[in-house]
Amino acid sequence: MSSSPPPRFDDVLAAAARIAPHARMTPVLCEPALDALAGAALHFKAEHLQRGGAFKFRGACNAVWALQDARAARGVLTHSSGNHGAALALAAAGRGIAAHVVVPQGAVRTKLALIEAAGATVHPCAPTLAAREAACAALQRELGATLIHPYEDAQVIAGQGTAALELLHALPDLDVLVVPVGGGGLAAGTALVLAACAPHCVLVLAEPAGADDTARSLATGTRVTAFTPQTVCDGLRAGIGAPNFEILRAARAEVVTVDDGQTRAAMRLLWQYLKQTVEPSGATVLAAVLAQPARFAGRRVGLVLSGGNVDLDAIAFCARCGTG
What does the pLDDT look like over 152-210, one tens digit per residue? Predict the structure, then answer.
């Protein structure tokens, strides 16, 4: 867990300035057919078109470029099943420093290929959080590299919040903003932005039913730490981070859980109508809106499509699509 102070909205503003030369300002996509299905006005923040194929680049980039030169020269280190590792590798390459990524066995091949292509050194480990953390600790002692935690690092959280900052700049009158939640970096950063810029806007977190620790944590007021995730959403299998949970509890964030069947159906709708390839973790936001239409009916809804690094061979519907 990160020992740094929790981030504030000012940190998000600083992050926006810091990453501006490196990150993409992603578009907002709309589709009347999806509006009709949902009974609401949907505005999709296309973070699957971000560098590295996911919003994770915002946080990794901010954390890498926030390091002082002497510390950066020793390189950076993280553990990741995919998108954060690829993002950190890209950010480190942009600054000309070494990146080391501890990757659990069974990671999505598409994401592993991105990490390797960006030039990071990959360190395989067993597919448990304990194994990840142990491997990172050993490498940190050996290399002296700076650990950039995937979602608890304050600079990462601040960087992730810039996606909501951009969206609200374009659409300040949103009624609801829906983001996926796993470890909670994006969710916590979004909460900071809404509190400062759009307190009227409700924060809704989309979470897989097979990894619903955030829903249970917020319902009871105590962070759930012991659970075994069972979901196709590989990017949302992490447990909610401690600082992230505190930020989300203070924000009174709401949670909608969706099963994998609903998520796959949402992926297909995004492909069919938006013509966008979005990974399961990112598709949860549309799945959440469609799962509880009364909650969103008639409202202006922002949805963050968090990533697009899909292993197409592993998606069941693709095998049935034919050549059309």
Answer: 999 999 999 999 999 999 999 999 999 999 999 999 999 999 999 999 999 999 999 99
Phi/psi-derived region of residue 111, left when phi > 0, alpha when psi is between -120 and 50, beta in every other case: alpha
The answer to whether 9-54+153-320 and 57-147 have equal CATH topology is yes
Could you state, in order of their start, the residue ranges of all structural domains in the chain?
Answer: 9-54+153-320, 57-147
- What are the residues facing 305 on neighbouring strands? 46
Q: Give the distance from CA 32 to its chain's centroid.
A: 26
Find the radius of gyration of the CA atoms of the chain.
Answer: 18
216's tokens: 């249970």
Compute the distance between CA of residue 83 and CA of residue 151 in angstroms, rounded to an integer: 12
Indicate the fold that domain 9-54+153-320 takes in CATH. Rossmann fold (3.40.50)
Residue type (1 letter), 37: L
Q: Which H or E run contains 11?
A: helix 9-19
Closest CA to 101 of 83, 131, 79, 84: 79
Mean pLDDT of 241-263: 97
- Asked if the 57-147 domain carries CATH number 3.20.20.70, the reply is no
Question: How would you write 186-216 as a 3-class SS string?
Answer: HHHHHHHHHHHHCCCCEEEEEEEHHHCHHHH
Is pTM beyond 0.85? Reply is: yes
